[in-house]
Every structure is written in structure tokens, then in C-alpha cells.
Specification:
single chain, 408 residues, alpha/beta, Rossmann fold, 2 domains, nine-stranded mixed β-sheet, binds S-adenosylmethionine
């Protein structure tokens, strides 16, 4: 759905008028920018599909991209996320029958996203797993004894070797990719549903030394975990509420999808003026220790975690962050269709002290976009806040701040 900026402004105004939205205005560099506050998407709305349930640092809820995809695009339009993470925007767009481009400089993003566009049959996954031979004497090339029972470790190494061989022989098919994705997700975690002894949640692998401390403190020793059984369990859980039509939509989208592992500032593979909507949330100022968070996931997939860590944008301050995002906006402007949209989500940084949205507005404008406003999604807006009390809203309420742009 493309709009000229004047239409777009009216369209958004009409939209906010039909909902009980609080509208305020802020002045940014002499421009009056509307700030709309509402519970635009709620946990009460249609539940998110179980297919999204892959953990990833700083991911957003599927309801956020769904809101913008439904509001601003039609079937067949291209939806893009330059900082795709676990692929929330891409998967939701696929479910809704849109085409997608998914980019993230972290190669784990593609490993965790692509297979869900080609949901395999449970029986195929079971049969494939049954045919993988586990060598119980195998050990990892690094000490993983603090995470895994020796038999579990042997299974993980066998699986790693099997996937590596399939890849090098160019035989890796969608069932293998699915197993790789699920196994990567199951490597470590805080429940018996994971391969490891109790540790931090799955997207935050701790160091070997730290795990030894956790084990000593909890007086725990890794118990055997049946990796094939756990992969089957997670497979069934991921597809437990997905509908046949959604699986078909995802496959159709997947067949023409573009998966990139580029710096979001330079994506020459994406043609000029091809994207109808971008929904994204960038890396924030908070320093996420990429290599320590992902070393085990990278080890399993034969990825050099240190090398990847060096390419991830980790800005020390707002000036550095703005310089990177300025270039991202120029690239988004190039690839966005006339009348196309960008929904740029920024969280509340440093407890709301830094309002990144107010930095983002001029960056988008400089690249040529027209800012349509800032949308603040307050969960349970109507219950927890009255129209005058939003400013006192306590933390604990999940707040998203989205800067919305349109291309003239
Ligand atoms: C806040 S997360 C996005 C999460 C995503 N919305 C989701 O739901 O999973 C930011 C992502 O940006 C990626 N990233 C960091 N610097 C990048 C860059 N320069 N270019 C492309 N991706 C980058 C990180 O790897 C991370 O996955």
C-alpha cells in the first residue's frame, strides 16, 4: 500500500482518530512531530504463532511487525528487516503472504530464520534423526564437560560432524537445516528441555569457568540428555499451532526470499525502490557481548565468533550510534519504493533517559524520508494509564517506541 506523504499523513491521522489514541506534539529541529500513544497491539489479540519461539537477544514480539504489515502493506509486497535477528519481521510477513528480504550481519540469524520458511513434516525429521549415527566415544575439540554429560557431548559432536559433512558435500537439505536450527536453539538453557545442565537462558551461553561456578554453587553435574528426543520435542512445539495455510504462505515467501548477512549500511543485492515496508529494531547502545553470548552456538555451526563479533555494530555513545544509523537510513531510502514505509523501533535506553526516537527522526529526514510520527505502544494502556498519567508510567510495562517514516 503506497501513499504520497500527504495521503500518508491523513491515513495515519485517520487511523489514530479511530482508536483512542493520545496525541501530543514534540518539536525536533523546528519540526512538529506527532507522538501517538496507545495499546496499538495487545497480548489479547490473536496469539503469535508458535513458529516464532526461537530465543534471541533483544527480539521483539511478532505482534509489532504484524501491526505495521497489516496496516501498511498488501499481499505480495516486499517487507524488509535490515537487523533481522531471529527473523521476527520476516516470519510474520511470510505468514501474512508478503515477500521478504531478511538481513543480519550475524550469520546465526539466517541459520535460525530460513528453515522456518520450509516447515518439514514431523515424520521426515524423525526419520532423518534416526538415520544419523551417533558415535558415543566422540569428544569435542574444546572442554565442554561442565555443560554436558559425556554421552550428550558425543551426540552433539556427532550431529555437528554430520551437518558439516552434509554441507561440504552440498547435500544439506531443508530437513538438515531444520535440525541444525533446532539443535542450535537447544544447546544450552535453563530447563531439562535443553541439552546442557542448568545454565543461563539459551541466547546467553556463559563461559566454561562461569559454568563451573554455577555447577559448584548448585551442586549439580550434567545429566544425560537424549538429543534426538529433545529435537523432536522442540520441533513439535514450534509447529503446534501453525495452520496449513500459514505453512503454504511461508513456503511461497521462502522460495523468492532474499537472505543476506551484510552490514545494513551496504546491501547492494537489494534493488533500488523495491521495498514497501521496513520493520526493524537496530542494535542499541547497550553493549551486548556478542562473542561471549554466542560462542557455543558459533562453535556448533563452525562460525568464528570473534570474527563476527568484530563486525557487529557496538556503539560506545549516541554520536557513534547516530553515524552508523545515518548511513543505514541512506541505504533504506535507496531501496524503499516511493510511498513506502519504514517503522524503526527503539527501546527505552538507560531507563528512558536517552530517547533514541528523538535522535532517529532527524537521521531519517536527512536521508530524505518524511517523518509521520512516533508511535508509543503501551501495554495495557487503557488499564494502567489514564490520559494524563502516562508520564508516570512505571517500568515493568513493556513499551515500544517506533518512528514511522514514508518516502516521498
Ligand atoms: C535488536 S536485534 C534485532 C532483533 C530482531 N528484531 C528480532 O526480533 O529478533 C539487532 C540485530 O542487529 C544485528 N546487527 C548489529 N550490527 C549490524 C549491522 N551493522 N548490520 C546488520 N546487522 C547488524 C545484530 O546481529 C542483531 O541481530
Amino acid at each position: 500500500m503506497s501513499h504520497s506523504p500527504r495521503d500518508a499523513a491523513r491515513y495515519i491521522k485517520d487511523f489514530v482518530l479511530t482508536s483512542k489514541t493520545k496525541t501530543e506534539y514534540i518539536n525536533i529541529n523546528g519540526n512538529k512531530i506527532p507522538v501517538y500513544t496507545n495499546e496499538f497491539w495487545t497480548s489479547k489479540q490473536r496469539q503469535a504463532s508458535s513458529i516464532h519461539e526461537i530465543s534471541y537477544r533483544a527480539c521483539f514480539k511478532p505482534q509489532l511487525p504484524r501491526f505495521f504489515i497489516n496496516l501498511l502493506t498488501q499481499e505480495g509486497d516486499i517487507v524488509y528487516d535490515p537487523f533481522s535477528g531471529r527473523g521476527t519481521t520476516a516470519i510474520e510477513a511470510g505468514i501474512l503472504g508478503r515477500n521478504i528480504v531478511s538481513n543480519d550481519i550475524n550469520p546465526l540469524s539466517r541459520i535460525l530464520t530460513l528453515p522456518r520458511f520450509f516447515v518439514p513434516n514431523v515424520i521426515e525429521v524423525k526419520e532423518r534423526l534416526e538415520n544419523i549415527t551417533y558415535d558415543t566415544k566422540l569428544r569435542a575439540d574444546i572442554d565442554l564437560s561442565m555443560f554436558y554429560h559425556p554421552k550428550t557431548e558425543a551426540e552433539i559432536v556427532s550431529l555437528k560432524n554430520y551437518l558439516k559433512q552434509r554441507e561440504s558435500e552440498k547435500k544439506e537439505d531443508i530437513v538438515d537445516l531444520w535440525i541444525r536450527m533446532v539443535a542450535t536453539n537447544r544447546l544450552t538453557g535453563h530447563s531439562p528441555g535443553f541439552f546442557s545442565v542448568y545454565t543461563l537462558p539459551p541466547n546467553q551461553a556463559v563461559t566454561a569457568e562461569r559454568q563451573q561456578l554455577i555447577n559448584a554453587k548448585r551442586n549439580q553435574k550434567p545429566e544425560y540428555r537424549d538429543t534426538k528426543k529433545l529435537i523432536m520435542k522442540k520441533t513439535k512445539s514450534l509447529i503446534r499451532n501453525i495452520k496449513e495455510q500459514e505453512i503454504l504462505n511461508l513456503r511461497k515467501t521462502g522460495n523468492s526470499a532474499l537472505f543476506l548477512s551484510e552490514d545494513a549500511r551496504r546491501t547492494p543485492q537489494i534493488p533500488n525502490e523495491s521495498v514497501s515496508l521496513t520493520v526493524t529494531s537496530p542494535p542499541f547502545l547497550d553493549v551486548v557481548q556478542y562473542d561471549s553470548d554466542n560462542w557455543l552456538r558459533c562453535w556448533f555451526n563452525g562460525i568464528d565468533a570473534k570474527k563476527v563479533a568484530n563486525t557487529i555494530t557496538m556503539s560506545k555513545n549516541i554520536q557513534e550510534w547516530s553515524c552508523v544509523m545515518e548511513e543505514v537510513f541512506y541505504e533504506l531510502y535507496r531501496i524503499t519504493k516511493k510511498g513506502g514505509w519504514v517503522a524503526f523501533e527503539v527501546g527505552e535506553v538507560k531507563g528512558g533517559k536517552i530517547k533514541l526516537d528523538e535522535y532517529v527522526v532527524p537521521l531519517g529526514q536527512k536521508a530524505g524520508f518524511c517523518c509521520q510520527g512516533i508511535l508509543i505502544n503501551l501495554q495495557e494502556f487503557t488499564k494502567t494509564s489514564n490520559i494524563w498519567g502516562i508520564g508516570n508510567n512505571k517500568s515493568g510495562t513493556n513499551t515500544n517506541r517506533i518512528v514511522l517514516f514514508v518516502k516521498d
